[in-house]
From TrEMBL:
Source organism, top-level taxon: Bacteria
PANTHER family in the record: D-GALACTONATE DEHYDRATASE-RELATED, STARVATION-SENSING PROTEIN RSPA
NCBIfam families attached to this UniProt entry: ManoateDhtManD (NF043051), PRK15072.1 (NF011654)
The organism's taxonomic lineage, starting at the top: Bacteria, Bacillati, Actinomycetota, Actinomycetes, Pseudonocardiales
Protein name: D-galactonate dehydratase family protein
Amino acid sequence: MSATIVAADVLVTSPGRNLVTLKITTSDGLVGWGDATLNGRELAVASYLRDHVCPILVGRDPAMVEDTWQYLYRGVYWRRGPVTMAAIGAVDLALWDIKGKVCGQPVYQLLGGRVRDRILSYTHATGWDVAALLDAVAAQRERGFRAVRVQTGVPGLESVYGVTKDGGAYEPAGRGVAPVEETWDTAAYLRYLPGALAEVRAAVGPELELLHDAHHRLTPNQAARLGKALEPVDLFWLEDVTPAENQDVLRRVREQTTVPLAIGEVFTSVWEFQQLITEQLIDFVRAAVSHVGGITPLRRIAALAEVWQVWLAPHGPSDVSPIALAAATHVGLATPNFAIQEYMGYPDRVHEVFRHAWTYADGHLHPGDAPGLGIEVDEALAARFPYEPAYLPVARRLDGTLTDW
Ligand code: GCO
Ligand code: MG
């Protein structure tokens, strides 16, 4: 007799930031863990799971990973969107975790085994001015990183995406019941950034990989101008130049510049990547393994991208939990067209609540060889940190109109 799912429970904890976790328990006593965190909308995913998904998981065969994905995606009629897909992603991760434990194998073995010894990772360095940014880059190089995302302040602006003024650790979600409002001026950013990044390149030398995130804020024309201006900096990638809801416009950017483009952390399905990949409008797919619906669809996206020489580079900020990071590293070790894994890091308490087999050393991540995803959640410790409302900021232009954050 095959095992059945006997319980599916949702844990919401805030050990430094809000994280939502799905726990699936089987009749033979195995437990699988999935990440269901959606920054600023955590409780919506928790409710989607608790109220609509957990009850129908009970009684199902945990071995049927693909069928359960299809059941939750096609079987619901209302499909896609970040809340739905983060919920499906949590189920998919938990079922892969269980399958690994049943087989006594780390998930990467079930995905075909390793194609590399370890996976390259990049982290963030931020500084309000170039001197502070160079200090931050030096500190990350000390930690072994060979690839660093660089974000700076902009003269004349009080706050800028991805940068803290006091040099402290960056966490975009501000605690409180309403989002913080930031002011944004694209013209000032475009005037300042190319010179600032040229200074960074001159200081760090040619070998360090530098990345930059424009966070959806430019028009196609501005993106093309910025891409051209940054060509001498030799970026590993320029991320999210436009909101990319209108994907056709990226052709104009591609025609104008050879800067490598990365897009996709807010996309939730293979279909949102289809045009970008098949028309080669981007170089790197930034899907988050949990937000895109799990390991099952991430593998499909990777396979489509491989055909078109597009590379996989999963999203890995502190707002996807160490469970999602585990899943991304398993995929990364086993996927030929995997390029790099973002590793922003976590507050210490997060590592205590989510004990993980994955390790960071010398600029690289490894998923470890524990069965499944290699995660143990300290539920008693998690329960000591209840949910606190926290939201990403919103951004307004100088004239007060709302713009993309
Ligand atoms: C990145 C991202 C994040 C997002 C965050 C929003 O490239 O890492 O842009 O830092 O801003 O995930 O919740
Ligand atoms: Mg990004």
